[in-house]
Amino acid sequence: xxxxxxxxxxxxxxxxxxxxxxxxxxxxxxxxxxxxxxxxxxxxxxxxxxxxxxxxxxxxxxxxxxxxxxxxxxxxxxxxxxxxxxxxxxxxxxxxxxxxxxxxxxxxxxxxxxxxxxxxxxxxxxxxxxxxxxxxxxxxxxxxxxxxxxxxxxxxxxxxxxxxxxxxxxxxxxxxxxxxxxxxxxxxxxxxxxxx
Length: 196
Hints:
This protein is α/β, with parallel strands linked by helices. It is built from seven helices and seven strands; from the N terminus they run αααααβαββββαββ. A hairpin with a 4-residue loop joins strand 6 and strand 7. It is globular. The relative contact order is 0.15. The N terminus and C terminus are likely disordered.
């Protein structure tokens, strides 16, 4: 994936101030490709077009109406999506779907069932000079050290060393399943390429 791939996919929704705006006349497939977290919001409202090959070519409004939703419900979906994609993250965020997948993976790690998730970030470039440089993310289960930053996501403890946190701060981690791939996706404001 090229470093600007996600940014290109989001261009259709970018506003002059740098924020994003999703509207009911946008295609479900375009919205999900640019903003994977929108899929979870749509699914939570019963808009199952997310998983249908044909219906990803429907607009959000058209897909919602096809599921019998009224204007109030459609507005609620769109408002939730816009809030989620424009939310500023002060530390780090891990979506409930990613937390569930991490717990599932950890359950298969013999002897590590209660260990925290350790996230390490490395960069081969000076991101102050090259802000779109890709980072390398490592996620594994490991014991915390005294200097680690510690985060709690619904009982899942995540530890990050200070150097990695400086590169990860403001990021959101999600677990994404699409028609052709599945994996963790890190939406990092410092770089566009966040596949783990």
